[in-house]
Every structure is written in structure tokens, then in C-alpha cells.
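Translate sequence into C-alpha cells.
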Amino acid sequence: VQLQASGGGLVQAGGSLRLSCAASVTIDSIHNMRWYRQAPGKQRELVAGITRTGITNVADSVKGRVTISRDSAKNTMYLQMNSLKPEDTAVYYCNAMIITRSGIDNYWGQGTLVTVSS
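Result follows.
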């Protein structure tokens, strides 16, 4: 499984961005897809996740400002981010988790940089 993240960039505080994560397989075969982020000098943290059945969860730090979604027809997951803050600056990574007979396989995209200026 290959994941291609895109949509990052430089935006002013209060602005919006939409990140995309395109999968090389049908995302209906992926049990859980997530967005993580890693700011300089900090650990990677979970931003939001969405299951194959569409159940979502969002981190408290971004709740009310981000929406995670997926489009099966395009095999793509999205992260709509609004009211961006400088503390949202990070490299954003998409992750796909597939449950197999032998266990759980995790796949990562290459990351897309989001920079929010004050």
C-alpha cells in the first residue's frame, strides 16, 4: 500500500487548508485511516482518524477546527483544517491500518508540511 499526502503549504493564522491522502489501493480495504502530525522537536501525535465504516475521531487540540473525510471513489482521505493557528505548524502524515490474518499492517505516507504564520 502506498500513500501520497499532499495539500500542505504556508498559510496565515486563521486560514484554511485541505490535506489529501491518496491510496494505491481501494480504501474500502483499509480498516482505519488517520492523520498524524509532528512539530519540530515534538513527538508525532494523532490528529484525526476515520474507520472504514465512517466513524471519526478528532484530537481535542483541533476539535471544532478540522474535519476528516474519505472518498471511496477516489481512494482518498481528506483533512479539512480551518482557523489554523501557528501551533498547527507541523509535518502531517497519513496512516493506513489494515487488519490481516497475521496481524495489523501499518502504512505511512511521506508527509506534507503545514506552516502557519502569525
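Note: Residues 87 and 117 are 9 Å apart (CA to CA).
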